[in-house]
Amino acid sequence: MLMFLQEHPLIIGAVLMLLDLSLWHCLDATQPVLRICSRMVLFVAFSWVLMAAGISPLQPPLWPDDAILNLAATVLGIAWWLFAARTLTVVLGNGLTSREGHTARLLHDVMGAGVFLIAIVGAAAYVLQLPVKGLLATSGAMAIIVGLALQSTLSDVFSGIVLNTTKPYDLDDWISIDGIEGKVVEIDWRSTHLLTDLGSMAVVPNSLAAKTKILNFSRPGNVHGVVVIIAIPSHVRPRRAMDALEKALQGTRALLPGFKPKVSVKSSHLEYNEYELKGFIESISHKTEVRNLMFDLAHRHLEAAGVTWLSEPAVQAWSRPRRLLEDVRVFRSLSMEDRDRLADHMTAVDYQADQVILAFEEIADCLMLISTGVISASIHDGERFIEAGRLGPGEVMGEEGILAQGRSRAEFRSLTSGRLFRIEKAILGSQLEHHSDLQLALDNLQHQREEIRESVVAKKTPHIKRSGLLGWLQKKRLPSA
Predict the structure, then answer these.
(1) Which residues share a beta bridge with 410?
(2) Is the CB of residue 408 less than 8 Å from the CB of residue 358?
(3) CA 377 – CA 408 distance, rounded (Å)
């Protein structure tokens, strides 16, 4: 056996290296311990073959007169250094902390490059007997020249190592880097790849990410901030505007109740003031929907508080009941004259916070239009009341009693003080007789609310709508105005 090793060490060494490569590719990547153990066993066997053949990787070949044996010893000595570098890289790389779905590639590659560089220098010094000091001096000068030429790229590489070590973000995190917002889909040597909400891919250099401000919207994972900025004419008293905006936040049921939403003055200008509405939600996927809902509610509550922007003179001359009828989609089928006459017969009713506006199973004798304030609609599931939604300016209550003397399937309780307008059933009855579209709109509203009631009782989460409960009507058979 020893004679065979001494005569054919190159063949046996090549067989062992091919066996190592075959096992590495055949073994499943989900079994890293088995792969590492097999590589270490083969490396030990390879080292034993060299020693049995009288070959040492720490000294030059001992057969200068035999060209073939000398070449075999040189090749095996160099192969031992490379085999050792590969084994050490695999062992150390397995101990690195991995990202979710992303091994620590940057650190692993840099470490591997360093280990292989040491192996190459060792093979050159011990096996080939090359002047390593001169080689290192020459390579050092070349490294300086290459480093100056690749200064920007090297900055990205080392910044990537820092980011990989400190981990300010992981794969699948939603972040913002220097104002560029998106989902992290890849982190490589040079850059971080972000998938934006527009579907485009933003490639941010790691050097920029290491120097600029990074916002990670995925940490902590259960709370995400939502901010809306509203510009309001400067002649409007701030307290009046803030009261309306606070009601808008109270009407946004998607905001987490454990984190109190806030309204603050962001900036002041000659013609307008900017107000910031801030709240928190549980899922970042609903961020856009909640922001749109907050903006819509803010506009409705501001308009209900008398805050107006530039509009047509005819609209400015309308009374609050008339403007309310214009905003409610249920009455879009009525003509302008019918809405004018209906507005003259609307009666204002003020209510306080925590007041039952329409009790559960009560038969409403009128249709109620919310002018100001926030009202909570709660469903009774047989044991207790569960909040199903919140109503604000421009939404209606009592359609069950108007259509068929039906009892209310929900309890409507005020969360804030406010005002509503009553349209008596006797007055609305004539409109229902002559306008089938109005009756159809109210019927659609009733059926949509019944679907929401059933989903709440079944413990299903209702989908967020742009304009509250009346938004249900947008996807139904409503005629256009």
Answers:
(1) 379
(2) yes
(3) 11
Q: Where are the beta strands (DSSP E) in 321-424?
A: 347-351, 356-358, 366-372, 375-380, 385-391, 396-397, 410-414, 418-424
- How many whole angstroms separate alpha carbon 143 and alpha carbon 149? 10
Whether the Cβ atoms of residue 270 and residue 234 lie closer than 8 Å to each other: yes
Measured CA to CA, the distance from residue 302 to residue 241 in angstroms comes to: 7
User: Do 317 and 299 reside in the same domain of the chain?
Assistant: no
Q: Please give the single-letter amino acid code of residue 185.
A: V
266: CATH: 3.30.70.100
- In this structure, the answer to whether residues 140 and 176 fall within a common structural domain is no
Residue 75 and residue 38 in one domain: yes
Residues 59 and 180 in one domain: no
- On the CB side of 343, CA atoms within 13 Å amount to 20
Place of tokens 């073959």: 49
Is residue 411 within 8 A of residue 378, CB to CB? The reply is: yes
142 and 176 fall within a common domain:
no
Count CA atoms closer than 13 A to 2's CA, side-chain side. 4
Domain that holds residue 242: 224-304
CB burial readout 327-357, b (16+ within 10 A) else e: bbbbbbbbeeebbeebbeebeeeebeeeeeb
- Domain final position from 282, 304, 326: 304
- A 10 A CB-CB count for 273 gives 19
Model confidence pLDDT, tens digit, residues 270-294: 889 999 999 988 887 788 899 999 9
- Does 326 reside within a domain? yes
Strands in 269-365 per DSSP E: 272-281, 347-351, 356-358
In tens, the pLDDT along 150-187 reads 566 767 777 877 787 778 888 888 888 888 889 999 88
Written as six digits, the tokens of 336 are: 């302008």
Distance of CA 229 to the CA centre of its chain: 20
pLDDT of residue 298: 92
Query: How many C-beta atoms surround the C-beta of residue 149 within 10 A?
Result: 10
